[in-house]
Amino acid sequence: MNRSDLIKKMADRLLLEEEDARTFIKTWEEEVEKALLQDDSVMLMGFGAFTLWKQVGRPGRNPRDNTSCMIAPRNSVKFKPGKFLLEHLNNRTKTPGEDIKEK
Fold first, then answer.
1. pLDDT digits (tens, 9 = 90+) for 25-84
2. How confident is the model at residue 99 (pLDDT cuts 50, 70, 90)?
3. How far is the CA of 80 from the CAs of 21, 44, 46, 77, in angstroms?
4. Judging by beta carbons within 10 Å of its beta carbon (0-12, 13-18, 19+), is residue 62 exposed, middle or buried?
5. Which of 20, 39, 77, 81 fits a 20 to 30 Å CA distance from 52?
6. Hey, is 71 helix, strand or coil?
7. Could you say which DSSP state residue 90 is in?
8. Residue 94, pLDDT above cutoff 60
9. Closest by alpha carbon to 42, among 30, 29, 51, 54?
10. What one-character DSSP code corresponds to residue 91?
11. What are residue 77's DSSP bridge partners?
């Protein structure tokens, strides 16, 4: 699914115009970006968490000519899926708030 598909699906499910769904998704992206720029994480209970990951500079190798080079430090984002998302993806029938009794 790409961005346009997501906008269409959100508009259909929420009974919105596509422009309103586009504004909603853009606003959500901006707020997540702002939080990450402030070294804050975004945690959505049950769904997952977005956290800033600061990669350190490290030696690398250019595969074309096999020369050594330094890879510059950079920021990236990690997503850790939440319990309910993982359970749903692994076909468990648990709904949020219920306890699963393992046998």
1. 999 999 999 999 998 999 999 999 999 999 999 999 999 999 999 999 999 999 999 999
2. low
3. 25, 10, 11, 10
4. exposed
5. 20
6. strand
7. T
8. no
9. 51
10. T
11. 52
Q: What tokens were used for 64? A: 């074309």
Look up tokens 């586009």; give the residue.
22
Place of tokens 């309910």: 84
Q: How deeply is 83 buried, as exposed, middle or buried, from its count of CB atoms within 10 A (0-12, 13-18, 19+)?
A: middle
| Residue 48, CA distances (Å) to 20, 33, 84, 90 in order | 25, 16, 9, 15
> CA-to-CA distance for 16 and 60, rounded, in angstroms?
48
Q: Rounded to whole angstroms, what are the CA distances from 81 to 12, 32, 52, 84, 94?
A: 26, 16, 15, 8, 16
pLDDT in the model for residue 93: 59
Q: Write the DSSP assignment of 38-70 as a string of letters.
A: TT--EEETTTEEEEEEEEPPEEEE-TTT--EEE
